[in-house]
Specification:
Shape: globular
Strand order of the largest sheet: 5-6-7
Strand content: 15-25%
Structural class: alpha/beta
Radius of gyration: 17 Å
Number of strands: 7
């Protein structure tokens, strides 16, 4: 069984920083999604978003309306039974495309860093229905983060019982263009991500 990360925004780093840079001709926004997949290893397939033109960046509504077919692609991948995980790297926001893709998810994780910015957002902006909050980049010894984390434990009922601590291995694996589990499987972050995978059941 193979996991399949699908990048759903041009600004995401799932395909570009983690593995390789891809152009518009090698992505699901530029061609049939069946031809756009990348086999990284026998245990990992990718479906990258690719890059947008300057005109597309200035007028996102024009291309978002044409990308609805990715929903059918996700349903086809789920029905194939080939993948234990189909991970959607979604942008923040409430665009029609994002809402459509969230509705297809069995589980939704809102990734939050313990800082003032996320603290304000969590109190002002609604999470998708059924979403859980995953804390990322938690620093041991940070008084500010510790104080905010204690507040969140009391106020955020959707917090997952596991956090991803700050780990230099995470930055190193991105610079090396390798998945974390391949680059440093013995790192703290890799162990925490593995625990997270066991916590949230596969589809």
């Amino acid at each position: 069984m193979t996991p399949a990360p699908i990048t759903c925004c041009a600004c995401r780093l799932t395909s570009t920083s983690s593995i390789r840079a891809v152009g518009r001709d090698r992505c699901w926004t530029g061609q049939d999604w069946r031809d756009a997949g990348l086999r990284y290893t026998s245990q990992l397939d990718l479906l990258p978003f690719g890059q947008l033109t300057a005109q597309e960046r200035e007028n996102p509504q024009s291309w978002q309306e044409t990308l609805g077919e990715i929903g059918s692609a996700i349903q086809a991948l789920k029905a194939s039974g080939r993948y234990s995980w189909i991970l959607l790297d979604l942008p923040y926001g409430a665009s029609p495309l994002t809402r459509q893709l969230v509705s297809l998810c069995d589980h939704t994780l809102a990734i939050a860093r313990v800082d003032a910015n996320c603290h304000i957002r969590l109190h002002q902006q609604a999470l998708p229905a059924g979403a859980h909050i995953l804390i990322n980049d938690l620093r041991i010894g940070s008084q500010l983060q510790d104080d905010l984390y204690q507040v969140w434990l009391q106020s955020q009922r959707r917090l997952l019982p596991i956090v991803i601590h700050r780990d230099e291995a995470m930055a190193e694996c991105m610079a090396s263009k390798q998945p974390l589990g391949e680059y440093r499987s013995d790192s703290l972050a890799a162990e925490e991500v593995l625990t997270l995978a066991k916590l949230v059941p596969a589809a």
